[in-house]
Amino acid sequence: MKSKLWLTLTVLLFLVVNTSYFWMGKFGSLALPVFIILILVFLVLCFALLQQFYFLIKDNFKDRNKNLTIGLMCTLLVLTFFKPKGIINFESFESKAVLIAQREGVANCMTILKLKENNRFKERVVCFGISEVTGNYRIKNDTIFFNDIVHGLEEDDFFEFAVIKPSKGFNDANHFEMIRYKNKQDTVGDFLYVIKNELNKN
């Protein structure tokens, strides 16, 4: 009976981990404690697996159903360990990214913005948690406008528009920055380094 309970918990953990692509970005700073809880659950299940395996050896593997249960539990935990982001790359099913801009801040905090071929965008910020902002974009002349914005758990605003300019840190025509502005009164903006730009190919 215990082995089936442990298997059920293992299956639940496996499903949570493999669907994290869809929900992790909604938690913001709560993503870190959720991640820690998942690690603790994983460790408890590993300990339970070793305990159940010990009982199997003690019984000379006589219980066929229990053998299958523990074997499946072992398989799921091994997959979870080697594929902590899930066994399916769900992003590969999305529209192609035609522009990618990013910046690494203090404490290795990373902001990544992707403009998709289908005029959707996604910004992902990893900094003591994970937050995402999604929406649509349109291009008018040399300006990128963001609209239909869906915020994460902790965000309440986003940038209204952005422009791409040559990077000030390089004296060549190969490096660019995306400067994003909250509104027309914003004279400072927020910059990201453009690492991929295929907008002109559309």
From TrEMBL:
Transmembrane segments annotated in the record for this chain: 35-56, 68-84
Annotated keywords: Membrane, Transmembrane, Transmembrane helix
Identification of the protein by name: Uncharacterized protein
Source species: Flavobacterium capsici
